[in-house]
Specification:
The protein has 10 helices and 11 strands. The protein has helices at 9-31, 46-61, 77-89, 108-114, 126-133, 144-156, 175-184, 199-203, 253-256, 270-289, and strands at 5-6, 36-42, 65-71, 95-98, 164-168, 188-192, 208-211, 229-232, 236-239, 245-248, 262-263. The structure holds NADP nicotinamide-adenine-dinucleotide phosphate. Residues 145, 168-171, 173-175, 192-196, 199, 212-215, 233-236, 270-271, 274 line the site of NADP nicotinamide-adenine-dinucleotide phosphate.
Length: 297
C-alpha cells in the first residue's frame, strides 16, 4: 500500500510570498519602485468581493501597493474599456486584474484584449497566451492557477520530463494553459473534457493528474494510477452534516489515499498558490517595465 503524501500548497505559497516580498524590497532599494496591483471589480458579487479583498491584503503584506476600481454591474463596456486604458497609462500600476466573471452584456475577450499585455498579470491576453504556446513562455506572464500547480508538481516529482500528464478540463483559465505548461516541461499531455470518450481509462495512464472540472469528487480512486501525483484544482461546496456545507475538490480525496503518491488537499492546496502567483506576476511585471533584472521565483 502506498503512503499518500499531502502536498501542502499553503506552505509552498507562503514560501513564494516571502520570495516576492524579498524581491519587492530589493526592487525598492535598487530602483526606488514599489510594484502596484489594481483590481477591477464590476458589480457586487459577494464571492468576487471576497477574492478581491483577499488579493489586496496579500499584496500589501508582500510589499505591493494595492489599488481597487469598483464599477456598478450596469456599467457600459465602453466605460470599462476607458478605465482599462487609464490603468494601462498609469505608471503606478504594474498589474491589472479584471475580476471575472463580468456581467453578461460585457464581452470579456474584448476587455482582456484591451489590457496592456505587460500589465496582464492574469496571463489571459492573447499576446501572453501566444507566447506560452509558441515557446516564449519565459517572456510571458503566466496564468496564476496553472503556474501554481506547476510549482507544486516540480516539488512533488523529481522530473516531469517524459511523464504522462492528463489535464481534466479545457478552460482558458486552467486546463489549456496547464496543458501548455506541462508540454513545456516535456510531459506527454492529454487534455480531456466533457466530450472525451473514456475519462477513467485515460486517467489510469496518467503519472500526473490535474483535475479542473468543477464537479465535486468527480475523479474516483480507481481512476488513479498507483503512484500518480494528483493536483486537485476544483473548489466545490457540498452539503455536510448538521445542515452545514464544506468545500471539496474534483477528486474523491479519501479514495485517493493509498493509491496516489501525493495529492493536494481542498482547501489548502492549489487555492493559496493562485494568489501567490498573482503577486509573483505583479513583481515580475514591475521589474520588466523598469528594465530591472527579474528574480527566478
Ligand atoms: P470551467 O470553465 O467550468 O471548465 C470546466 C471544464 O471541465 C470544461 O472544460 C468541461 O468540458 C470539463 N468538464 C465538465 N464536465 C466534465 C466531465 N463530465 N468529464 C470531463 N470533463 C468535464 O471551470 P474552470 O474555471 O476551469 O474551473 C474548474 C474548477 O477549478 C472549478 O471548481 C473552479 O472553482 C476551480 N478553480 C480553482 C482555482 C483555484 O485557485 N484553486 C482557480 C480557478 C478555478 P467542456 O469544455 O467540454 O465543457
Amino acid at each position: 500500500m502506498i503512503e499518500t503524501k499531502l502536498i501542502d500548497g499553503k506552505a509552498r505559497a507562503d514560501r513564494l510570498l516571502a520570495d516576492v516580498a524579498a524581491a519587492a524590497a530589493k526592487l525598492k532599494a535598487r530602483a526606488g519602485a514599489v510594484p502596484g496591483l489594481c483590481a477591477v471589480l464590476v458589480g457586487d458579487d459577494p464571492a468576487s468581493q471576497v477574492y478581491v479583498r483577499n488579493k489586496g491584503r496579500a499584496a500589501v503584506a508582500a510589499g505591493i501597493t494595492s489599488f481597487q476600481e469598483t464599477l456598478p454591474a450596469t456599467v457600459g463596456e465602453a466605460e470599462l474599456l476607458a478605465l482599462i486604458a487609464k490603468l494601462n497609462a498609469d505608471d503606478r500600476v504594474d498589474g491589472i486584474l479584471v475580476q471575472l466573471p463580468l456581467p453578461a452584456h460585457i464581452d470579456p475577450q474584448r476587455v482582456i484584449g484591451a489590457l496592456d499585455p505587460a500589465k496582464d498579470v492574469d496571463g489571459f491576453h492573447p499576446h501572453n497566451v501566444g507566447l506560452l504556446w509558441s515557446g516564449g513562455w519565459r517572456k510571458a506572464l503566466l496564468p496564476c492557477t496553472p503556474y501554481g500547480c506547476l510549482l507544486l508538481l516540480r516539488d512533488a516529482l523529481p522530473t516531469l520530463g517524459g511523464a504522462e500528464a492528463v489535464v481534466l478540463g479545457r478552460s482558458n483559465i486552467v486546463g489549456k494553459p496547464m496543458a501548455a505548461l506541462l508540454l513545456a516541461e516535456n510531459c506527454t499531455v492529454t487534455l480531456a473534457h466533457s466530450r472525451s470518450r473514456d475519462v477513467a481509462a485515460t486517467l489510469r495512464r496518467a503519472d500526473v493528474v490535474v483535475a479542473a472540472v468543477g464537479r465535486a469528487q468527480f475523479v474516483r480512486g480507481d481512476w488513479i494510477k498507483p503512484g500518480a501525483v494528483v493536483i486537485d484544482v476544483g473548489i466545490n461546496r457540498i452539503a455536510a452534516e448538521g445542515g452545514k456545507s464544506k468545500l471539496v475538490g474534483d477528486v474523491a480525496f479519501a479514495q485517493a489515499q493509498g493509491i496516489a503518491a501525493a495529492i493536494t488537499p481542498v482547501p489548502g492546496g492549489v487555492g493559496p498558490m493562485t494568489i501567490a502567483c498573482l503577486l509573483r506576476n505583479t513583481l515580475i511585471a514591475a521589474c520588466r517595465r523598469r528594465g530591472e533584472a527579474e528574480p527566478t521565483i
